[in-house]
Automatic annotation (TrEMBL):
UniProt-listed PANTHER family: E3 UBIQUITIN-PROTEIN LIGASE NHLRC1-RELATED, PROTEIN LIN-41
Repeat region (NHL), residues: 368-399
Keyword Repeat among record annotations: yes
Keyword rRNA-binding: no
InterPro entries assigned: 6-blade_b-propeller_TolB-like, NHL_repeat, TRIM-NHL_E3_ligases
GO biological process: proteasome-mediated ubiquitin-dependent protein catabolic process; protein polyubiquitination
A Pfam match: NHL
Gene Ontology MF, one: zinc ion binding
Biological source species: Rotaria magnacalcarata
Keywords: Repeat
Name this protein carries in UniProt: Uncharacterized protein
Gene3D superfamilies xref list: 2.40.10.500, TolB, C-terminal domain
Length: 399
């Protein structure tokens, strides 16, 4: 019997059957011999009848290049799966930024998009909001007042390319009205766009012949977007002061954060902006008008203040309208502290943050920011900031 084999790659920390690769057939299965190790493999490689039970109680396999893993959709006992160490392209892992403990970044940024004054030329931006970096270090920008999504390729800092909108402000399907956030849905290779003042979320194919988007949901005052490993989309609503979760296959939603009117209690939000969802489906929210970041553990009824919450201010214990968010594999999170013109790092359990970029005052210098909003990281751990007031995106290199 010829068995098509695949590369065995680890996906520790991800939930069972999480999307762990660009290839949709690949999923994360838990290794039976370990309490916290998982592997990214083709879940449809073998039929149910071909799956062989592991040797008990040692959870081992007789066949060489096989691994004992749980595949609960097929059997309620661990099974042996072929996982030799070749064909590395079969289940390439979704890349996660490699940021180590005590990392530092260059204090001076490099302009990777815009920086030529406010305008609508292809070398300009007009109040950039959300920023997203794909695995090839392509920079996607929600170009707010130009009503478009711009794409800038690494190495070409001269001009960007309009990939959605750019047909003027409007509500046609080929138009946008002040987009605030954008991300890539890998399985369909589409953009997901928060079209703020059209009160809708669009899906826009990245195929070169695409001329318009399709409405994924409407009648929503969206601001921020995030997607988890299982293709659930999270959307913040700044009018209802809540975050809802949607499966991309349907439009049914689940309330996951807030929904208790505006306020500053732990079960409330006030104008939530940007989001991050970790591998355990815990949701981080920049609670903009409460000047804090909340973490809502999966299925929790209230959040935990993990940054700010000490009133508006510029002390290291405070935030001033937090915006963009990112959480790394160590649980360290990064906040675009918009009103303080800085990016702040908070480690788990810290009582105060550490400024990694910015000097607490607005300015156009390479070491300065002016109302930073969106932020993201590439897989090398370099930081990208949507420098709203300077109409540019800057990259700060990991040192």
């Amino acid at each position: 019997v010829l068995i098509v084999r695949l590369q065995s790659q680890r996906c520790d920390g991800m939930v069972e059957y999480a999307v762990c690769s660009k290839h949709s057939v690949c999923a994360c299965l838990r290794i039976a011999s370990s309490s916290n190790a998982s592997i990214c493999i083709d879940q449809f490689l073998l039929s149910r009848s071909e799956l062989v039970q592991c040797k008990r109680p040692t959870n081992t396999c007789h066949e060489p290049e096989h691994l004992c893993a749980y595949h609960s959709r097929c059997h309620d006992f661990p099974i042996c799966y072929p996982v030799p160490s070749f064909n590395p392209e079969y289940c390439p892992l979704i890349m996660i930024p490699n940021i180590f403990a005590n990392a530092t970044w260059s204090k001076n940024g490099v302009i990777v998009a815009g920086g030529n004054g406010k305008g609508n030329a292809t070398n300009q931006l007009n109040e950039p909001f959300g920023v997203f970096i794909d695995d090839d270090r392509i920079v996607l920008i929600a170009d707010y007042l130009n009503h478009r999504i711009m794409q800038w390729k690494t190495g070409d800092m001269t001009n960007g390319h309009v990939v959605a909108g750019g047909k003027g402000q409007g509500n046609r399907l080929d138009q946008l009205n002040c987009p605030t956030d954008v991300l890539i849905e890998k399985e369909t290779d589409s953009l997901i766009i928060c079209d703020r003042w059209n009160r809708r979320v669009l899906r826009w194919s990245r195929r070169s012949d695409t001329t318009q988007g399709e409405i994924f949901m409407d009648n929503i005052d969206c601001w921020g977007l995030a997607m988890d490993d299982q293709r659930y989309l999270y959307v913040s609503d700044i009018v209802k002061h809540e975050v809802k979760r949607y499966h991309l296959g349907d439009k049914d939603s689940t309330l996951v954060v807030g929904g208790n009117d505006q306020g500053n209690d732990l079960n409330q939000l006030k104008e939530p902006r940007y989001l991050f969802v970790d591998r355990q489906q815990n949701v981080y929210v920049s609670d903009w008008s409460n000047h804090r970041v909340l973490k809502w553990n999966k299925d929790a009824k209230e959040g935990i203040i993990v940054a700010g919450g000490q009133g508006v201010g510029n002390a290291l214990t405070q935030l001033n309208h937090p915006s963009g968010l990112f959480v790394d594999m160590l649980g360290t999170f990064y906040v675009g502290d918009e009103g303080n013109h800085r990016i702040v790092l908070w480690t788990q359990g810290a009582k105060q943050g550490t400024v990694i970029v910015g000097v607490n005052r607005a300015g156009p210098g390479v070491n300065q920011l002016s109302n930073p909003i969106g932020l993201s990281f590439d897989r090398q751990g370099n930081l990208y900031v949507a420098d709203y007031g300077n109409h540019r995106v800057q990259r700060f290199s990991l040192e």
